[in-house]
Model the fold of this input.
Amino acid sequence: QVQLVESGGGLVQAGGSLRLSCAASGRTFSSDTMGWFRQAPGKERESVAAINWNGGRTYYADSVKGRFTMSRNNAKNTVYLQMKSLVPEDTAVYYCACAAGKWLATSLLGKADEYDYWGQGTQVTVSS
Done:
């Protein structure tokens, strides 16, 4: 059974930083494309970042480019989202997702429909 468990969320002041982690289990993680998505209250889920199986390709939403960095450690079955210069608009529940065994074109890395497994989410709140 595939499980994705996010951690690292919390309350931070605007301008601060957080690092989210997503620990995966239940499959050969090293062959998977991984993504981070977020959903704010009253808004639709949106893509944040994604990374291919070896970290050679990444995708970032325009709203986070230059502030967020996604990385992965296949030996630890973990992906990370380093978030810097946080703004109140980054407040949301952040979800880790796995596209099992898929090679995704760069144009598809941010498409939620391409992902098969999802974590429960971790809350990030940025105060002004």
Observations:
- The two ends are 40 Å apart (CA to CA).
